[in-house]
Protein 1
Amino acid sequence: MAKTKLHLHESKDGWFSYRRRVPAKLQALLDKTEVKHAYKTKNKVQALKLHAIYHEKVEKEFAAAKAYLKGVAYQAGTLKYQTPSKMHKDVYASLNQQGLLPHQIPMPNSTMSDVDQMAW
């Protein structure tokens, strides 16, 4: 709980809010330097409950951004990492199971007309 309360801010008027700096590596991706959220309450107990929920949401957002920067897949809800090479192997194995090789998969071609590409 002590770590969660770290980003809880109380204004001079007694209003509670969330305030946290975005890590430098994630700022360009998230397009912000700071996360701010007003809890719109002066009640500390209510603010702590809201804070725990919002803090978890921010942590998930940061985890997803970090995973994206590392070039790995992220599935919403749970952190499930899969490297691009692992994804490639899985796709190749799936195609191989169907009796296909990647070069046998039909793909839209630049030589196709627009009508043919739309029909494809």
Protein 2
Amino acid sequence: MYHFGLGETSLVKLIQGAIQKKGKFTRIDLAQDDYEGLLDLPLIYEKLERKEVSTRFRGYSKYESSGKDNSSESPYMDHKSGYTIYIGAFRGSNCFVRIYDKKLQVGEECAWPVWNRVEFQLSHEAADQYCNPTWNVNPETGEIVKGKNRFPDPRRATFADRSFPKTAYYYLKFLDPYYKQKQDSLGFWYLEETHKRNWADCSWWTKFLKVSEGQSIGLPKNETGLEEIDNWLKHQASGAICLLTSVYGERYIEELLEVGKEKFSRNKNTKICCKKVLKTEQKLLKTFLMRFLFEKSETLVEL
């Protein structure tokens, strides 16, 4: 900390200091401990097996050891003693989760009767974007810059606004199935499992995280929904907009933005998706759109 000239300081200020010094973040571990026995590891693995989970990760695995296997070739050597569940790709991924029995790992010297841990491991780009969210759009001109130059991304939360519960709940939810009672053609009653979107979060998971609902934290993906809208605009509507702009000029863009603004004010889903978009970004959007359309117009055949 003293190398940053900050002295005694908080982690947030330390991160901010590293950003000011043009530092890069290559790994960050986010962890929360369970001392109450809320996390039942065998149950968690059963939930994964039964697909009673909502997650942005793919795949999972389990590792059990009595502590006798101390082989340095083991990919799980950092948790070689104990019971560990991995969610996500352990190899080749910048982000995955491990849930493990910390008490069993520590051994006899552990004074806690129960000690489980949920740990997110972020590395390389995921770690850097978590601490310092950036993108390649110049805030002054709206130009997409090629090369290594990066600028603060106003769409996403800063490190100070992030937290473990938000991260964990956004990426991982354990669910309790919900069933409806139905009657068949013969008059017999049976239970039918509903769609997963109707399932409730496991109370022990939300109690552990102490949250009732999650918030998007913007790990290096784009804001939910914006990427799809951007792709649709470029690939489906750009030709028509380009043609009309060539005919009516820049005022067509002005009218288009006014119509869009009115629709935006009536659309709750769009409001939720774009809540963090700043007023200054409207200027960036207009500048980018004009550049994009006029570049396209050069290829139009004269009418």
